[in-house]
Amino acid sequence: MFLKGKTALVTGSTSGIGLACARALAAEGANVILNGFGDAAEIEGFRTELAEASGAEARYSAADLTKADAIEAMIGQAEELGGVDILVNNAGTQHVAPIDEFPPEKWDLILALNLSAAFHTVRLALPGMKAKGWGRIVNTASAHSLVASPNKAPYVASKHAIAGLTKAVALETATSGVTINCISPGYVWTTLVENQIPDTMKARGLTREQVMNDVLLAAQPTKKFVTVDEVAALCLFLCRDEARSITGANLSMDGGWTAA
Fold it and tell me: Is residue 259 part of a domain?
């Protein structure tokens, strides 16, 4: 358990990629702070599971990441466990519409959760990491940090910005013992994606297989979904000492989407 004694904060970790990352980090002995929305009993089950896996602490923060004061309180909660050693910025949201029809409040929400929340967590966690001479920051970006799709202007803008934020902070922290990188997955198989399939089948008159291959996986040459465990494994590797020279990187995990 190479992360024993370390504390990891994973935002957006009550499902999907974030929960998989939390599980991977706990399995290596880290204290873990979960964050996100969901059913209280289910979240408590996740918290108990992580504590048992790590033999360490597992806590939950219901912080609303669109509010800077809530983020500050969440970082304060981590201080009770010795401060944030590993920060995984995974929380995010999406809305699809043409730019001239895009609700301004949705733009504000996407930028707040996908981008500004990461700014706040990084600025607040970094001093403690610098003081220890060790830290790992992993940002969940997207293939859309490198390429664009129509009707997703704020999402694409936020993910391009996350990649830029990662690079800038990497240069600022290059000699500090802290690394910061982003992972850019393509379509990841999650419950959220799976639940979209029936509606798309109905709306387009397609079979389940056609929706998966010709709609969701149209841009991924492998025609395979990325799994949450694959993303979590890369996140975990970035926390190893062997990854200390990887910083400022945007690591694609997209089945070849951005290779074209």
Answer: no
| 19 and 92 co-located in one domain | yes
Mark whether 169 and 241 lie in a shared domain.
yes
* pTM of the predicted structure, to 2 decimals: 0.96
Q: Which of 46, 60, 155, 187 is catalytic?
A: 155
- At 40-81, the pLDDT tens digits run 999 999 999 999 999 999 999 999 999 999 999 999 999 999
pLDDT digits (tens, 9 = 90+) for 94-143: 998 999 999 999 999 999 999 999 999 999 999 999 999 999 999 999 99
pLDDT digits (tens, 9 = 90+) for 177-203: 999 999 999 999 988 788 889 988 998
Q: Is 155 a catalytic residue?
A: yes
Query: Are 93 and 168 within one domain?
Result: yes
Please tell me whether residues 126 and 163 are part of one structural domain: yes
String of DSSP letters for the chain: -TTTT-EEEESS-SSHHHHHHHHHHHHTT-EEEEE--S-HHHHHHHHHHHHHHHTS-EEEE---TT-HHHHHHHHHHHHTTT--SEEEE---------GGG--HHHHHHHHIIIIIHHHHHHHHHHHHHHHHT-EEEEEE--GGGTS--TT-HHHHHHHHHHHHHHHHHHHHTTTTTEEEEEEEESSEE-HHHHTTHHHHHHHHT--HHHIIIIIITTT-TT--PEEHHHHHHHHHHHTSGGGTT--S-EEEESTTGGG-
Which domain, by its residues, includes 211?
189-224
- Same domain membership, residue 85 and residue 209: no
